[in-house]
Amino acid sequence: GHSSEVRSVAFLSDGKQVISGSEGLSRVRTWMVKDGREARVGRVMGEKSVVTAVATSNDGQWIATANGSRPGDAHSNRVTIWKATTHRKVVELEGHSAQVQSLAFSPDSARVVSGSWDGMVLVWSTTGERLIAHEDFVKSVAVSHNGNFIVSGSRDYKVRIWDMATSTQIGSTLQHNDWVNSVAISPDGSYLATGGVEKKVYIWSLK
């Protein structure tokens, strides 16, 4: 296994492999679901910084990893896109000023959304990024299955829904009574589930 805390896991689109990111020396590793063996031994994607989040694209082409904050580390707070089949680094995305906590790909695999402790949600694409902001650390992000909207949850006790195309907020802010740790959208886009420090799971209608 890893030599330190595992921060994030994600299945590849074929369901046969799992990617894991951790704080240890072999920070990004790939595992076979069938027998649990490591698919590629060692630091499989050449990542040298603490990995705080991983995500995989629906088309099976891309893996995204996020680096944590570490003094003197030039790779801190970056999002990196890798080719899934070769584990070759494609691009490093800079824009966050604090640790990236969550990653999610759009259904068409063309964009990746990142949420950070700097209070920002960034939507990355080949043409750059669009900025969406919270008032405190962003703990979790999710993209709807049709790719039309993003949901973000934050330590500011708020859940917000954003239009993917325009980066503008949709509807009213949803309010928790404490930090929001996780958000998830139902496959048909009709419901939103959120959970946090207050020990409750909320189900919201998006109809």
Automatic annotation (TrEMBL):
Repeat is among the record's keywords: yes
Q: Record's CDD domains? A: WD40 (cd00200)
Pfam families (UniProt xref) = WD40
* NAD keyword on record: no
Q: Which PROSITE patterns match?
A: WD_REPEATS_1, WD_REPEATS_2, WD_REPEATS_REGION
Which superkingdom heads the taxonomic lineage of this protein's source?
Eukaryota
Q: Where are the annotated WD repeats, by residue?
A: 93-134, 131-172, 173-207
The alphabetized UniProt keywords are:
Repeat, WD repeat
- What is this protein called in UniProt? WD40 repeat-like protein
